[in-house]
Design goal:
The complex is a heterodimer. Chain A is of the alpha+beta class. Chain A has one domain. Helix content of chain A is 19%, strand content 37%. Chain A contains three helices and 15 strands. The longest helix of chain A has 21 residues. Chain B has seven helices and eight strands, in the order ααββαααβαβαββββ. In chain B, helix 1 packs antiparallel against helix 4, helix 2 crosses helix 3 and helix 2 crosses helix 4. Chain B has two domains: 108 residues, no CATH class; 105 residues, no CATH class. In chain B, strand 1 and strand 2 form a beta hairpin. By secondary structure, chain B is of the alpha+beta class. The chains are: A alpha+beta, B alpha+beta. At the A-B interface, strand 9, strand 10, strand 11 and helix 3 of A face helix 1, strand 2, helix 4 and helix 7 of B.
Chain lengths: 246, 243
């Protein structure tokens, strides 16, 4: 009987210990500059941080820290409160625009991050929410999917970094698109089927002072994973420009 | 299927599913009562669940896609484990599990039929019943500056006429091809977001308005509907386009 009780309590304690080790805890105060710099230097062999551009808190559990390295690289670091501490989850050695999915499934928690290098002389970044126009015939029905092309211009001035959540309109359209892309009721007995054969994506265009792109950048490297995805550059030929009316 | 308050639910599909489970449980109960050698209850239910496992195929009947079980994999697995033991007792329940999929097909088809009767698919108000919280979003640079007027929209909705939307490929080419009449413009440059469909229909439609404000494109995953009206649903200053 005693042995049984002992095993029971031991299992209980183990479970509690495991739960506590996995528990993220309530986020503590933001890390100070020195510990951020040390953490980045430690994680990457190539990057030595010279200074931090900013410490931007995106929500209670995520911070975005753009930095400048000794060699003048304009990089980005991504921090998350996990298992009772602020963890450095990714470093990029340059600041090309990315989407950080703070919560993978919820676009309202997706943030566009960038850190422009003044050497590149970027005047403006224009982000686009895009969906290709589509028309098709399926199961005896004609379908038409209008093109979506929404702009989000961000001028790069004194402040050459940013972490910008998707605009409300983008979220509404993405939600509306999602409903058409998923068959209703993925239960065992689906009453409806079919799906929209076109989905939304995000791209951007850099606009340079003087209109010309600078010489090709050197290497690009990143460390760590995280839900951070690269935003592709959109060619002008991929965009629609309505003809002005006479 | 998850039940969430406030999100549109296909009430008829839910009832059909509940009815399906009811029939299956009734069948199990009848089987249980008629047996001389009583099975263990949890084993009986477990055997039924294992029996549901099968290789299946999707078939479309009356524009409704249903999953038909073909190979009784679960029944075979159960036979493999119980062939020297209590197979004779649990065999029936495994087969009930397998045939339950046909019960659900029947109730789903019945529900689908009822759904067609209750919700008129060619009536735009089925998809756009409540525009109280609706908003207009311009989705393309060819959109004009317009303001959303809920009352104008609803007035226009009343005189909408269903169109056989056979022009969709033309719409595409007019906008996408360099010498198309609408090149660089989008035929439906406005989206209406936040409108609610009729209660219990389960529809989550996407709505788009035509450039002249007189056409409404309603998208559902299974079908797209196109309506035209004499009255504009939207105050658009119509610019004459070159043909």
């Amino acid at each position: 009987m005693k042995i049984k009780a002992f095993i029971f309590i031991a299992i209980g304690l183990l479970a509690a210990a495991y739960w506590y080790s996995q528990w993220d805890g309530t986020p503590g105060p933001l890390p100070d500059k020195q510990s951020i710099i040390h953490a980045i230097d430690r994680m990457s062999n190539e990057i030595k941080v010279k200074q931090l551009a900013a410490i931007e808190q995106l929500d209670s559990r995520h911070i975005f820290v753009p930095f400048i390295s000794l060699y003048g690289e304009h990089g980005m670091s991504f921090w998350k409160w996990e298992q009772k501490e602020w963890k450095l989850i990714r470093i990029d050695n340059n600041g090309m625009p990315h989407i950080w999915k703070l919560d993978g499934k919820d676009p309202a928690k997706h943030v566009v991050v960038y850190h422009a290098d003044p050497k590149d002389e970027i005047e403006k970044l224009t982000f686009y929410l895009l969906r290709n126009r589509n028309a098709y015939f399926h199961s005896g029905q004609y379908f038409y999917v209008p093109r979506v092309q929404l702009e989000l211009p961000i001028s790069i001035g004194e402040k050459n970094y940013g972490a910008i959540p998707f605009p409300e309109e983008w979220l509404q359209l993405m939600e509306s698109d999602r409903k058409q892309s998923q068959p209703l009721g993925n239960a065992m007995h689906s009453m409806f089927s079919g799906q929209q054969r076109s989905t939304m994506y995000v791209g951007y265009q850099p606009h340079y002072r003087g209109g010309r792109a600078p010489e090709g950048r050197g290497s690009y490297s990143k460390s760590g994973g995280a839900d951070v995805t690269f935003i592709p550059i959109i060619n002008e030929s991929e965009l629609e420009r309505p003809r002005p009316f006479p | 299927m998850s039940l969430q308050l406030g999100s549109p639910q296909n009430v008829i599909l839910i009832i059909a599913t509940v009815l399906g489970w009811g029939v299956v449980f009734y069948w199990i109960l009848r089987q249980y009562r008629g047996m001389k050698e009583k099975p263990v209850i949890w084993k009986m239910l477990f055997a039924t669940l294992v029996g549901i496992f099968s290789a299946s195929g999707n078939f479309t009947i009356m524009s409704t896609t249903v999953k038909l079980s073909i190979l009784p994999l679960g029944v075979w697995v159960l036979y493999f484990f119980l062939r020297n033991g209590s197979w004779s007792i649990y065999r029936k329940f495994a087969w009930i599990g397998f045939f339950s999929s046909y019960i659900f097909v029947a109730t789903t088809l019945l529900g689908s039929l009822l759904h067609h009767v209750v919700y008129d698919k060619s009536d735009p108000f089925t998809y756009v019943a409540d525009t109280g919280k609706a908003q207009l979003v311009s989705i393309h640079p060819s959109a004009s500056d317009v303001t959303w007027d809920q009352h104008a929209f609803q007035d226009g909705m009343r005189v909408l006429e269903f169109q056989q939307s056979r022009d969709t490929l033309n719409w595409y080419y007019e906008s996408a091809v360099e010498n198309g009449v609408n090149y660089g413009n989008e035929r439906f440059p406005y989206a209406v977001v936040g409108a609610k469909s009729r209660w219990g229909s389960g529809y989550e439609a996407s709505l788009y308005l035509e450039y002249d404000g007189k056409g409404l494109l309603i998208q559902t995953p299974e079908r797209h509907y196109y309506f035209r009206s004499e009255e504009p649903l939207l105050d658009v200053e119509v610019t004459i386009r070159e043909d």
